[in-house]
Write a structure and sequence with these properties.
156 residues, mainly beta, Metal Binding Protein, Guanine Nucleotide Exchange Factor, Chain A, 4-stranded antiparallel β-sheet
Amino acid sequence: MAARERAPDYPRPPRLEPSTRRVRVVLGGVTIVDSTACWRVLETWHPPSWYIPAEAFAPGTLRPATGRSHCEWKGAARYFDLVAGGVTAPRAAWSYPDPTPAFAPIAGHVALYAGCVDACFVDEDRVVPQAGGFYGGWITPDVEGPFKGAPGTEGW
């Protein structure tokens, strides 16, 4: 296991860092991602968000979805439904096709809500989704909170 990290110690504005840890995602009983070429976004009070190369998703599993949002750090996001094994997870993934300069490396990468799929793994550790319906952080045993997202944490 990697050295223990504390989400309260992550920076604001967030930091982007590459990772060679193995990331796997399962939906509908099908492994739709298996990659060791991801990026992590680390932001104060948040477990890391993982950005996976779009080409690491199994063919046909990313379907463009309606809606957009804006991040003050990364720019304009677009959304995707995830589809596999007869299951559709609506608006379960997002990307920044033209991110701000500080986050340029995540262009062509996709993040997803761990709670919308069967399971996500970092190395062999099963991810716990960040609480709340807005944030997409992945909690692993090597990251400790407290984490923003649960009721009462909005003002952190």
